[in-house]
Amino acid sequence: MTVRSAQGDYDVTPVADAASFSGLVRDLDDPFVAIDARVAQLHPQIVSGIDKARVYAIPATEEEKTLAGVERLSLFLQERGASKRSALVVIGGGIIQDIGTFGAHIYYRGIPLHYAPTTLLSMADSCIGAKCGVNLGRYKNQLGFFKSPARVYVWPRFLETLTPDDVRSGLGEIVKLAVISGTASFESLERRFEKYGAGLDAIDEAIFSSLDTKRRVIEIDEYERDLRKTLNYGHTFGHALEAVTGHEVPHGLAVAWGMDVANYVALRKGLLPESAFARIHRLLARWFSLDIKHDYDAAALLEGMRRDKKADAATVTLILPKALGELQLVKTPLDEALGALVADYIKEHDIFRKTR
Prior knowledge:
Layout: E1 2-3, E2 10-14, H1 18-26, E3 31-36, H2 37-42, E4 55-58, H3 67-79, E5 87-92, H4 94-106, E6 113-117, H5 120-126, E7 131-136, E8 139-146, E9 151-154, H6 164-181, H7 183-196, H8 203-220, H9 235-244, H10 251-268, H11 274-287, E10 290-292, H12 298-306, E11 315-323, E12 326-333, H13 336-348, E13 352-354
Parallel strand pairs: 2-9, 3-4, 3-5, 5-6, 6-9, 10-13
Antiparallel strand pairs: 1-2, 7-8, 11-12
Helix pairs in contact: 3-4, 5-6, 5-8, 6-7, 6-8, 6-10, 9-10, 9-12, 10-11, 10-13, 12-13
């Protein structure tokens, strides 16, 4: 798959095995590697043959996804003698992708970035599109920019060491993209869940179907001026939940929850038919429920939404569906009326269960 970009087109390339990937890295001009520390332990063969002095292991935590974490990566590159002609190969999920992309963008005003996603969420969604963000204080992705990779490498065997919740997190973004794509994609995904459940069977097709949906959107609106904003469906409520629960909820599961809240708000506003809400809710409730320890309520969630990049002091732009394949941007007051809708959702429809 080739993704057209104003910064330069780039390919998403399937990789057959670890040896092939290592060979591709070694063939780059002056390569350095930033890798998820856990991935380095689970898949040591992925960096075999690469000079260990050029490999930087990063803990995949929200605390590391900050300017301080980016500085640590930059100091590593500086101490190891990386130059303007060096390439940075980033191996990991979304957190490592953001840290590595940020570092590659600012080091010597920019060095080439190559990316190997290791989570289902990053393979099926974030590995293309060029968006990068790091956290500021309690809130996610407050600082960022757009930087396209030179190339993306997809090796599905990384997924075999994921936890079930990590897999479901990736599937949450796949559901998001299926709703955006339309009825045919969503029906195909419904059949896949019925046949395989929330596992990894037949996952390659789901990954590349999702990437193709996202590719079609970002090639029209790379810098998120209009159409691409629909890809934030589920994220406004989901990001608020992540902040309120101290990131207890994996990102893709927070997005699944956020989609369900957005759908409920759309239902109550008369935008989404009840049959469509019930259909999507049924899938989300069955496959994306979660027991969590942190309490949350509508007031705390609205406060988190005020920190969202899509919000101003008094309003937030919600992405609300009218039907499968038809979403719209709705500027919505952050007021008691929205708080009441969120409270009603939590009381009547919440797909998550509090265990404390």
